[in-house]
Every structure is written in structure tokens, then in C-alpha cells.
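User: C-alpha cells for this one?
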Amino acid sequence: MAFHRGWRYVAFISGFVGVLGLTLYPIAISPMIDASEYRKIQKEARKNIRQEDIQPGNMKVWTDPFGRKKPERDSE
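Assistant:
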């Protein structure tokens, strides 16, 4: 197996990593940075669904078992 050296090898590896990054950005990184668009789509898709009606086995809708409270926001 030949050992690769030189600027061509570095350019090849850099190009490969760059193409991989450009491919993954809109799929994985962008939704993590700004999820507001996905929240809006989810809210629109679920607006006529009551979770209590579709809960399987007449189970209670999930609640936090540790009773954490949401931090209050200052109203200005």
C-alpha cells in the first residue's frame, strides 16, 4: 500500500471533508440550530388532535415524574 504525501493528498482529504460537511449541514446541523420552523410545522399538523383521545390503553398523558416547574418569564 502506498503512503500518500503532499498537497494533493491534503487537498483530497480537505475536499472530502468539505463535501461531507456541506451535505450534512441542511440535514443535521441546521435543524439543531434553529428548530422554530419545525415547531411551526408540528403545531399546524397537530392542531386538531387531542392527545387524551389518542393515548393508547386509556393511559394518562405523560407528565414529569419529578415535578419540575417551568421557569417563570418576566413580563415587561
